[in-house]
Amino acid sequence: MDMVAFGVLDDERALLEEAFGAAAQGIRCLEVSLDADTAPAAGGHEVVSSSVNDVLDARVLEILAAGGTRMIAQRATGYNNIDLARARELGMTVARVSSYSPYSVAEFAWALALAVNRRTVRAVGRTREFDFRLTGLMGRDFHGRTAGVLGTGKIGAAFARIAHGFGMRLLGWDVVRNPECLALGMEYVGKEQLFAEADLISLHVPLVPGTHHLVGPAALAAMKDDAILVNTGRGGLIDASALVAALKRGKLDGVGLDVYEEEAGVFFFDHSLDVMADDVLARLMTFRNVLVTSHQAYFTRDAVGQIISATVRNVADYRAGRRSENTLVAGPAPA
């Protein structure tokens, strides 16, 4: 066995072991996240598979390389957690999963939007205590209102199709206009206009320097006071401290967050007996109109199956000296 996977979730383990067993490659699955403290556990493993919240900075990559690792197979689309320049210098191959079911994330974004709009979590909490009052549970129709979609790739387009089904006006913001979204009647506008006019705002752009804190004080100030904001993309798209300040002023009717910019080491783990040291996350959890989930939008059998299948192919491509659309850094072919 010369492959180890970090950050493996309980529901993911059996699928990984089955897939790599069927591929006659074998895999060692670890629940712990990858960082400088855990990286030595990969010693002797040529291939390391990482999850989205693992830390693969220069120091970690150096430890991995010293232990014999030559390939990083990221089980995610995003790769902002990997120092690609250092990986290239070390002669490592890095691959990601460039795409998987866009419906998993788009549908979950809508689950968050609907839940915060119709106060579903609060309602369930009440009815479990046999409190069947409707006070404070009034939502509103999405039909006839405006949905703002930032990022109109596969996931954003899937979100837009659902919005179109609700009968919503569509505003989009992206560097490239998606013909599928245009066919739905989407109007592409500047992000300032989108923030000002949208009743529902959903984030589906990648996290790059130009989108870091895309939603900050200015964007939040421009939004309608009763807008709903949903983020199933990357936590760093939202300035969480600015969001807390806006919520304290009574801004926004609801917020659905499946990601958080400081989620590494928190999401995917049980901290129910710990003191929450992250003051911003703790404060966000106190707002009745904020719903936080733990980066689970992608977590369907369909999407996870596709992620694992793509990871198997990425490892096979590395061993065969091939490149694909998933290859981020191509190191020397294995001997």
UniProtKB/TrEMBL annotation:
> What is the residue range of the signal peptide feature?
none
Q: Taking every annotated instance into account, which residue ranges of this chain make up the domain D-isomer specific 2-hydroxyacid dehydrogenase catalytic? A: 14-327
**Which organism's genome codes for this protein?**
Streptomyces pactum
Domain D-isomer specific 2-hydroxyacid dehydrogenase NAD-binding stretches? 111-297
Q: Name one Pfam family in it.
A: 2-Hacid_dh
What family does this belong to? Belongs to the D-isomer specific 2-hydroxyacid dehydrogenase family.
Q: Write the record's keywords in alphabetical order, separated by commas.
A: NAD, Oxidoreductase
The record's listing under CDD domains reads: LDH_like_2 (cd12183)
Its protein name is: 2-hydroxyacid dehydrogenase
